[in-house]
Design brief:
Elements: E1 23-29, E2 42-46, E3 50-51, E4 54-55, H1 61-71, E5 84-88, E6 93-97, E7 103-107, E8 109-111, E9 114-116, E10 126-128
Antiparallel strand pairs: 1-2, 1-10, 3-4, 5-6, 6-7, 8-9
Length: 133
């Protein structure tokens, strides 16, 4: 897996158009479903930026913990997890490891006085409840 573009940053660089305030959204990742096979939605924040038309969410730690639990639990239509996930307190990062033992680490960033985690931002295909570009 490729490293997250901000994995080593503690403060996220400003966007090209200048800083934009965060606002709450809900996001889901295709294939990460609940026990009934329905999409699982997670509370997140966005500053409105998108990557290839997909949301680039930031999560509070408690939501990151819920994402880790979802990744570690096979649910329909997945019969196996394929990815192992955990929180690494030493790095203050959420880590996701694939079948080849490649890791992605999404370290904490400070935005608007909040500590948030850009889990999968600029890498995974998150969809938001606002629709995507």
């Amino acid at each position: 897996m490729k490293p997250h573009p901000h994995a080593d940053d503690k403060i996220l660089p400003p966007s090209r158009s200048g800083p934009r305030p965060l606002r709450p959204i809900a996001v889901q990742l295709d294939g990460l479903n609940d026990a009934n096979g329905s999409p699982r939605w997670f509370a997140a924040f966005t500053n409105g930026e998108h990557w290839n038309g997909f949301a680039t969410p930031y999560f509070e730690k408690s939501v990151g913990d819920a994402i880790v639990a979802a990744f570690n639990t096979p649910t329909p239509p997945r019969t196996s997890v394929g990815t192992r996930a955990w929180y690494d307190a030493e790095r203050d990062a959420f880590v996701f490891q694939d079948e080849e033992d490649d890791e992605e680490a999404f370290a904490a960033v400070r935005i608007d006085g909040r500590t948030l985690y850009p889990i999968g931002a600029w890498f995974w295909t998150w969809s938001s409840n606002e629709g995507d570009d």
